[in-house]
Specification:
single chain; 3-stranded parallel sheet; alpha/beta; Rossmann fold; 26 helices; about 750 residues; 4 domains; Transcription Regulator spoIIAA
Amino acid sequence: MNAPVDVSFFPRAAKPLSSYRKFWAARFGTAPFLPMSRAEMEQLGWDSCDVVLVTGDAYVDHPSFGMAVIGRMLEAQGFRVGIIAQPDWQSAEPFKALGKPNLFWGVTAGNMDSMINRYTADRKIRTDDAYTPGDIGGKRPDRAAIVYSQRCREAFKDVPIILGGIEGSLRRIAHYDYWSDKVRRSIVVDAKCDLLLYGNAERALVEIAHRLSRREPVEQITDVRGTAFVRRTDDDTRLGWFELDSTEVDVPGPVESHINPYQTTSEQAAGQGSSCAKENATPVEEGVKPLSFMPNPALPQRNGKHTLPPRERTVIRLPSYEQVRSDAVLYAHANRVLHLETNPGNARALVQAHGEGATARDVWLNPPPIPLTTAEMDFVFGLPYARSPHPSYADENGSHDHATKIPAWEMIRFSINIMRGCFGGCTFCSITEHEGRIIQSRSEESIIKEIEDVRDKVKGFTGTISDLGGPTANMYRLGCTSPEIEAACRKPSCVFPGICQNLGTDHQPLVNIYRRGRALKGVKKILIGSGVRYDLAVQSPEYVKELVQHHVGGYLKIAPEHTEQGPLSKMMKPGIGTYEKFKTLFDKFTLEAGKKQFLIPYFIAAHPGTSDEDMMNLAVWLKKNGFRADQVQTFYPSPMATATAMYHTDLNPLKGIHRDDRGERVDVVRGEKRRRLHKAFLRYHDPNNWPLLRDALKAMGRADLIGNGKHHLIPTFQPMTDGSYTSARRKNSTTVASKTPKPGQLLTQHTGLPPRDKGNR
């Protein structure tokens, strides 16, 4: 069994979340729901709130909703917490509803980035919002974190603003913004917040709340991990720090070799004739001046030994906002350095200038937060959540009709989150940048207790747990077999291009939970709704057997994303051969169980590094294997992701950034026409796409794929408006009597698979 997170190997011992002395307001006890009105505050006996949380989501008191977790965590520390959910942002008045916060505002756009929530991958406005009652769109503004922060400042200008959530987390430095097609400043600058908390923020927020309660000025709180803030470039914050230019960590030019992200830590160390166990850094002697240069410990030494400053007092200066805005090479370089400095065990602080001259400011990013231990995860998920939406969303009878139902709540109300984090490192995904790559798992007892709570307390439970998972279904308790190596590793992925030799892949703890959970009285079935990381699953046939024979509700979603090596290498995803291995096991155990079950493979169109030929080959593979996707994913450039850096710069940060021809150029799919073509290949069976595909195949020299045989990709005929069809080869061809199926029928008739999940990734 893999050990839980061992924080002793991280730079500074983290203070346990439950070890703080409670604030005096703990005497008021626990609120059934965190109040959303003055009337509720009065019922609790409160005259004011210590903290007011502003969120773009409806308030659901459940551990899958960020504001509920943060609110209940602060309540457990003794603070009085109120929530303002989805306020009207046209004025500051709605932000005054609970009065002036005694300590600070907590601001977030919600569980989703507000721009991704509002716009499709084609920049079209969505009409729905799963985090809003009635699934109604438009209940939060664009760039909600910035707008909410501005309104909070207008409401009570002297109250500190602490910004958090995924929208702020992914915009902590200058970043490419897909919706405006330009590089924007750090959100810390635009929101004018006092502190930004990135990643899972419980540890940082609890420390900050207690320090503010002791009347420590917020501008002096500069040493908390997982935080970012703005200071003048000549501020005293720089005193005692050793500044290192980022171009000395990873030079964007033909100077020296670069870190290979695919090497293991031991391989890097072996190349230097040393061990990866510990960094042998010579301590700084008294009187030694701060260094302007420090070589990366993973690179060969130059001209003998250097005296290295302590890592915890080293800050790396990234190229400024003005530089990355105007220079694609420096943008890709900054993105690469940021991702190299994400391991809490060895990450250094980062700083990036915004503005010039008298207006110059530095955005400081402290190293990532120390991961939560298993005991702390149990503490977080064991808080007294009501496990339902706030009563204000219900009707007079306490029930929810179509107009008041919150789709996101309906989706997760019977699900259990068992872990956090992901070490997959998929370049298009933001989970690693937000939650980190170190898996933080709950104990088996904590998970079983929550299953029992769902069974006994959640209205409408019929015996089926809809999911036991998290960012992935099967990374529970997986991690590096050596905490010492884990704290020193700088790889962006533990499973690409292959599974690291130091990664433990024992699925037995997860199998034990599945078996124990489904044996509970009153639990008829436990389904797995989270995506399965199939390259890990095949390492444990016993897990696959348990999953397939007991925890699949007819369909299991899985994400090979593509079949071709070009795009897969840019995604950092395994080859399609690994998917085939998993499918073989899936089919075998399905047959043994005497069931009829299907895999639902997900694929991405228009990802950086994908050629038209790659999409054509994927379409051929789909038809050969009998898949007809009803809905498709189009690559969505989310802020700070590595694939987004590829999209913006045409460069591959995974291979090192160079100004000469050694840098790898990436084929980027831009423009509506080409993106539409790539989507059309995924939906090769849709007659509406056939004219576009015929033209493309002819231009590609693959007209041999056009025909009416089973080996052809698309037919020569084209449906007419009355349901009949005509040949595409002649304008006046004879109408054929039979009809082609409607597009919506194709998926069910061909494979029996259900429609894809709504929306694009």
